[in-house]
Amino acid sequence: MTSDRRTLLADAALDVLADEGMRGLTHRAVDRKAALPPGTTSAYFRTRAALLTGLVTRLVQRDQTELRTMAEELPPLRTAEELVDGMVALTRQRLTGEGRRRSLARYACTIESVRDAELREILVPRENPGREAVRTFLAAHGATDVENRTHTLLTCIDGLVFDRLVSGGEVRREALEGLVAAALRQAPGGSASPAA
């Protein structure tokens, strides 16, 4: 029961953060969002730091579940077009509906983690089937320094999602095609050049 209540409160805290920003994230606001009596959130998360830690832990858990599900639904990536299709699906999911709300919370927590080592550690990119699919694709297509290229490609996609979250619209397919092409580009002599 305790873990269910903590999960409910962490999800409510995510909603408060998405709706009201970091300043609006209070124990009382989470109580209201969860439709629970005043004081409930502080009984489970005594401090604001504990509330943020619980929120970020839950956010990462939900993100990992989303990425696992998406990877399971995709066929093995054979072509650059298939990889771009997967990235289009991911960016759309991160920019619409519940995914957009989680993106708002994620970026607010990322900024907060600059001053909080514990949050930063929780937010470190985790292994997941989606990341592994990108890594496998790049290796199968002759990219060198696959680990760095995977990280750069996924970081650039994250940046595009952030840009569209702030300015509106969706990530253009052409932008994703350019990122994949850069990740696969070879330098003269056959060795891969650094991804842009």
TrEMBL record:
Protein name according to UniProt? TetR family transcriptional regulator
User: What keywords tag this UniProt record?
Assistant: DNA-binding
Q: Which InterPro entries match?
A: Homeodomain-like_sf, HTH_TetR, Tet_transcr_reg_TetR-rel_C_sf, TetR_C_31
One GO MF term on file is: DNA binding
* Gene3D superfamilies assigned to the protein according to its UniProt record, in alphabetical order: Tetracycline Repressor, domain 2
The ranges the UniProt entry gives for DNA binding are 26-45
Ranges for the HTH tetR-type domain? Answer: 3-63
